[in-house]
Write a structure and sequence with these properties.
four-stranded antiparallel beta sheet; mainly beta; 2 domains; single chain; six-stranded mixed beta sheet; Rossmann fold
Length: about 425
C-alpha cells in the first residue's frame, strides 16, 4: 500500500507542476504559431458617455459612482466621463425600506430611444452592477455580466496553501478552506466551488458544502475539476496513469474520456468541446476534442503548436468559442485563441509572467495570475484595460457564478422606454 501511495503522491506533485509551472523551468522555446500574437485592443471606444450620479445618502452616492465607473471601464465600446459629453446618463440612489432603490436614465439620440430602468434591493453593490449592465445594454445592444466570484490558491507566510474567494472585482477576499490541510487547484461545478486536498499519505476532492470532508477519493489523485454540461470533468489516476474522466455534478457515475499512455490533465469544457493538457507527443501542450453524446471523445487534435502550453480554459457565447491558456518558454504569458476563426493573440502585458487564465461567464472578461502582482482581470476585447483586483500571492484562479442569486427586482417602463 505504501509504494502505491508514494507513486500517487509523486503523480500529485507532477500534476501540480503541470498546473502551476514557473517560467524558465524548461529550456525548449515555444514554436511560433501561424498568427503573430500581439497584446492590445480588438475594439475601440465608439460611444462617449457623460455620467451623473446623485441621490442620498452621500456615502451611497460615492459608492455607487465608484462601482459604476469601475464596471464601465471594462467595456471598450464606451468612453465614460463627467456630464456634458456624449450620451447623458443619470443614476439616482435613495433609501427604500431596509435597502435602496437605484434608477437609471439614458438620453436618447437619433438612432436609439431614451431608457429608464429602476432597481431595488438590499445590497447596493448588486444594484449598481445591475444598473451598469442595463446601461451597457442600452448603449451597445449587448448585456455584459458584472457578477460572479474568483477562487484562487494562496500560501501565506508560515501557513499551508489555502483556497480563497473574492467577488469578481476583488471585493471581500476571504479564505474558505481548512487550515488543517493543504488545499489547491480550485474549480467551479455550477455555483459550487470544489478543490483538491493534499495530506501526507492521501489526496481527495472536497467542496464548499462538505465542511472539508471527502467527496471524491480514489487512492490515487483526483484533481483539476471543472464543470462540464450537467456534470463535471477531472483528471484522475484511478486507472493507473492520469486520464480525464467525466462524472455527474455530485461526483458519481464516473466514466473515462481519455485513454493514453501519456499524462492527460487540466480539462475544461464549453459548448460540447473539451480542452486538456497532454504530453502524448512528448511535450505538454493543449489539445481539443468534442464530447460524444454517448460518452467519450471524438478525434483529439492539438490546439497549439509544439512547445509547452498549459492550464487551458474554454468559454462559449454568441460571439463564438474562445480558448485561453498559458504559454511557457521564455516569458510566461497568457494567450487567447478564437477556436472558430483561428485568430490568436497575447492578452497579458509583456514581461508580466502571467498564467492560469479563467473566463467570466459571458466570455467578455478574463482573470489570470501575474507573478509578484496578484489576480488580474482584463477585457477580452481590449486587454490593455486590466486591473489587479486581488494583490499578493495567488495561483490557479477560477471564475465562477455567485454562490446564490442576490434578490434584485427590476421595474421596466414599457421595455426600456422613456420615464413617465
Amino acid at each position: 500500500m505504501l509504494p502505491a501511495m508514494i507513486r500517487a503522491l509523486r503523480l500529485a506533485s507532477l500534476l501540480y507542476l503541470l498546473a502551476a509551472l514557473a517560467p524558465g523551468s524548461h529550456a525548449q522555446a515555444p514554436v511560433p504559431e501561424a498568427a503573430s500574437p500581439t497584446f492590445g485592443a480588438a475594439r475601440r471606444p465608439a460611444v462617449r458617455v457623460g455620467l451623473h450620479v446623485a441621490g442620498e445618502p452621500s456615502s451611497a452616492v460615492r459608492e455607487l459612482r465608484s462601482l459604476l465607473e469601475n464596471d464601465l471601464a471594462w467595456v471598450p465600446a464606451l468612453d465614460v466621463g463627467r456630464p456634458g459629453r456624449g450620451r447623458e446618463v443619470r443614476v439616482y440612489v435613495r433609501p427604500q425600506g431596509t435597502g435602496f432603490a437605484v434608477s437609471l436614465e439614458v438620453d436618447g439620440d437619433d438612432q436609439t430611444p431614451p431608457v429608464f430602468v429602476s432597481h431595488r434591493g438590499a445590497e447596493l453593490r448588486a444594484l449598481g452592477h445591475a444598473a451598469a449592465s442595463d446601461l451597457v445594454l442600452s448603449l451597445t445592444g449587448e448585456r455584459p455580466s458584472f457578477e460572479g466570484r474568483l477562487a484562487f490558491a494562496r500560501r501565506e507566510p508560515g501557513r499551508r496553501k489555502q483556497i480563497w474567494v473574492a467577488e469578481w472585482d476583488g471585493f471581500a477576499p476571504r479564505r474558505v478552506s481548512s487550515e488543517r490541510h493543504t488545499a489547491l487547484l480550485p474549480g467551479f461545478v455550477g455555483p459550487v466551488l470544489w478543490w483538491s486536498v493534499l495530506e501526507p499519505h492521501r489526496s481527495f476532492l472536497t467542496h464548499e458544502h462538505a465542511a472539508g470532508g471527502v467527496v471524491m477519493e480514489s487512492g490515487g489523485t483526483d484533481m483539476g475539476i471543472a464543470g462540464c454540461g450537467d456534470g463535471l470533468v477531472l483528471s484522475s489516476s484511478r486507472s493507473g496513469d492520469s486520464e480525464v474522466w467525466w462524472a455527474r455534478s455530485d461526483g458519481s457515475a464516473l466514466r473515462r474520456l481519455t485513454e493514453h499512455a501519456g499524462i492527460d490533465v487540466s480539462p475544461s469544457c464549453a459548448a460540447g468541446r473539451m480542452a486538456f493538457v497532454s504530453d502524448r507527443d512528448g511535450t505538454p501542450r493543449v489539445f481539443l476534442s468534442r464530447l460524444r453524446a454517448e460518452g467519450g471523445l471524438d478525434a483529439v487534435t492539438p490546439a497549439t503548436a509544439p512547445g509547452e502550453t498549459q492550464t487551458p480554459t474554454l468559454c462559449a457565447s454568441a460571439r463564438g468559442t474562445l480558448l485561453a491558456y498559458t504559454r511557457l518558454g521564455g516569458a510566461m504569458r497568457v494567450e487567447l485563441l478564437d477556436v472558430d476563426r483561428g485568430h490568436r493573440r497575447v492578452v497579458s502585458p509583456p514581461g508580466w509572467a502571467a498564467k492560469d487564465p479563467s473566463f467570466s461567464p459571458d466570455c467578455r472578461l478574463l482573470a489570470y495570475v501575474a507573478r509578484g502582482r496578484g489576480v488580474v482581470v482584463a477585457s477580452v476585447d481590449d486587454p490593455t484595460r486590466h486591473r489587479i483586483v486581488v494583490p499578493g500571492a495567488a495561483e490557479t484562479v477560477r471564475w465562477g457564478p455567485p454562490p446564490a442569486a442576490v434578490p434584485v427586482t427590476a421595474e421596466r417602463a414599457d421595455a426600456l422606454a422613456a420615464p413617465r
